[in-house]
């Protein structure tokens, strides 16, 4: 199951070349690493949203291509740095940058990508683009740090969970939608509406990811990876509130001390299923999806709007 938008097919092909140009370096080592990064790029969901949200309002222009490149440069930089922080050896089935070239080079590559994004915007006077995306990077850092702080104490309630995913995941998608719309309209009120649309969609997207960990009939076998990494997400937050005191203590004990033991992880997953954690979380996901659709469907009907609507629905119906 893969989403391939038809209304921006040509723009995405053009973007590939423009992004490669934006990322290239005269330093041989950096250029080799940039080629490696471009070769292993994923679904390009964020540039896709830049183009769709831009074309929803007016024809795509050079400013839109720069906005999409900026989003992808900043996003890639954060992924490179995340792999260093998480000591991750793989990303999307490929070796991570730090796995091949070690941490020192990976950190410098992340810095290089950030600087290329800054230069792309400042060289073309795209200061509003830079402001929108810099705010997203700030929020992402705050979300990561809040999650680290709270996971140490196992003290995450529902309000904190939504603050973390709003900042850590949804902020970049929201900014991609906002900067795309601004690139073709120069209208801050429209950009703000698309920011809200992207935030709601980003939250729904992350909730869907969190559901994958527990598995459902539609999703398949649970992985338990979040539990193994001591991440408390919404299905478990709801369950911890719903169960009796002894079960709650048992769940917390497993997270702290038995999170690598398969039988204990399965106990947590089963307890979440039996106590309504999946149903509650799914309902929340659809609430945010419907908020995103409400904002989107207030705009004039068009092929682009239809495609964006399909992409929103795909986000919460996908099986990967």
Percentage of residues in DSSP E strands: under 5%
The CATH topology: Farnesyl Diphosphate Synthase
Major sheet size, sense and barrel closure:
2 strands, antiparallel
**What's the domain count?**
1
Cα distance spanning the termini? 8 Å
The gross shape turns out to be: globular
What would your notes on this structure say?
The chain has helices at 9-23, 28-39, 45-55, 62-85, 97-123, 127-153, 158-185, 188-212, 225-228, 234-242, 245-257, 262-274, 277-296, 303-317; strands at 90-91, 94-95. By secondary structure, it is mainly α. The protein has one domain: Farnesyl Diphosphate Synthase (Orthogonal Bundle). The chain has a two-stranded antiparallel ribbon. A hairpin with a 2-residue loop joins strand 1 (90-91) and strand 2 (94-95). Helix 7 crosses helix 8 (188-212). The longest helix has 28 residues, at 158-185. It is globular, with a radius of gyration of 20 Å.
In short:
76% of the residues lie in helices and 1% in strands.
Descriptive terms for the model:
320 residues; mainly alpha; Farnesyl Diphosphate Synthase; two-stranded antiparallel sheet; 2 strands
């Amino acid at each position: 199951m893969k989403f391939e938008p038809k209304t921006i097919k040509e723009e995405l092909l053009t973007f590939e070349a423009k992004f490669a140009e934006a990322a290239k370096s005269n330093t041989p080592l950096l250029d080799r690493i940039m080629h490696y990064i471009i070769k292993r790029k994923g679904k390009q969901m964020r540039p896709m949203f830049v183009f769709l949200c831009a074309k929803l309002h007016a024809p795509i222009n050079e400013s839109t291509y720069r906005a999409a490149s900026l989003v992808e440069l900043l996003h890639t930089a954060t992924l490179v740095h995340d792999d260093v922080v998480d000591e991750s050896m793989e990303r999307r089935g490929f070796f991570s940058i730090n796995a091949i070239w070690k941490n020192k080079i990976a950190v410098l590559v992340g810095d290089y990508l950030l600087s290329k994004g800054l230069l792309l915007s400042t060289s073309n006077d795209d200061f509003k683009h830079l402001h929108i995306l810099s705010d997203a990077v700030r929020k992402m850092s705050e979300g990561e740090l809040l999650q680290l702080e709270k996971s140490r104490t196992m003290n995450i309630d529902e309000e904190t969970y939504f603050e973390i995913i709003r900042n850590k995941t949804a902020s970049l998608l929201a900014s991609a939608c906002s900067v795309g719309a601004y690139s073709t309209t120069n209208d801050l009120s429209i950009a703000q509406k698309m920011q809200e649309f992207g935030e709601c969609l980003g939250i729904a997207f992350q909730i869907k990811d969190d559901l994958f960990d527990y598995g459902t009939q539609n999703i398949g076998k649970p992985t338990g990876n979040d539990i193994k990494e001591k991440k408390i997400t919404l299905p478990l937050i709801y369950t911890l509130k719903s169960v009796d005191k002894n079960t709650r203590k048992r769940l917390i004990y497993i997270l702290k001390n038995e999170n690598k033991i398969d039988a204990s992880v399965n106990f947590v997953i089963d307890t979440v299923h039996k106590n309504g954690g999946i149903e509650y979380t799914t309902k929340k996901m659809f609430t945010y999806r419907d908020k995103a659709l409400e904002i989107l469907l207030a705009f004039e009907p068009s092929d682009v709007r239809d495609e964006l609507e399909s992409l929103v629905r795909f986000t919460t119906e996908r099986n990967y």
